[in-house]
């Protein structure tokens, strides 16, 4: 497989100043397709066919972000993430099957930054990578160097959102949200009491050139409510306005 700056064992052959993405998947077709797409967007890539082969390399020579498949031989993505999190805050995106909801939520609790279900859109994956990198602590010094103003903390009643760290708490308790869920909640919380249509929420969470079914927003809202109710069984601040959309109440 032809991989730019990529040796057969997954190590980089030479250093440059590009953002480095590590891909860990036992499906060689996915490794090839995703790596080529990332390189076309200006990223450098490193590829690994299983978690066992990737772990030491990710710790000894960390990339800027890693993408893991959950189901892999030798060491699956969940175990790889568990071991990685003992020593590293490396941003991680999971690739999952549509029936892996429990694994997705467990992975987010362990510290994954987002998940994308297979089959997936490469444009959506690229959008999620960029969103996570913008919120990564590893990128914050770069923003300071160029004088970029950090995103302000959002506080609405018991909700606290830190866009720079992609961190959310409710009544002081951490709530693990994906990038998509964070962007949807941010769009609602910035304008409490204002009804946001599904189209407006899709515009906030997805690039303009990605088609998303209305029901996708409903699914994300449903999952987000469940996460908040896991820390507060009375949570009802995301309100549904049937036929109109959603709003956030900070009362």
Count of alpha/pi helices: 9
Q: What would the principal axes of the Cα set say about the shape?
A: globular
* SS-derived structural category: alpha/beta
Low-confidence stretches: 1-15, 137-148
Terminal CA distance: 56 Å
Describe the largest sheet: 5 strands, parallel
Q: What is the residue-mean pLDDT, rounded to a whole number?
A: 80
**Quantity of strands, as a count:** 11
Instruction: Tell me the β content.
Output: 15-25%
The radius of gyration computed from the alpha-carbon positions, rounded to a whole number of angstroms, is 19 Å
Helix content: 25-40%
Largest sheet, spatial ordering of strands: 2-1-3-4-5
What's the quick description here?
This protein has helices at residues 28-40, 51-60, 77-85, 101-110, 122-135, 140-145, 179-189, 198-205, 214-231; strands at residues 20-24, 44-48, 65-69, 92-96, 114-117, 154-156, 159-162, 167-170, 173-174, 238-241, 245-248.
Written account of the structure:
With 251 residues, the chain is α/β, with parallel strands linked by helices. It is 39% helix and 18% strand. The chain has nine helices and eleven strands. Strands 2-1-3-4-5 form a five-stranded parallel β-sheet, with helices on both faces. Helix 7 crosses helix 8. The protein is globular, with a radius of gyration of 19 Å. It starts with 19 loop residues before the first strand and ends with a strand. Mean pLDDT is 80; it is low at 1-15 and 137-148.
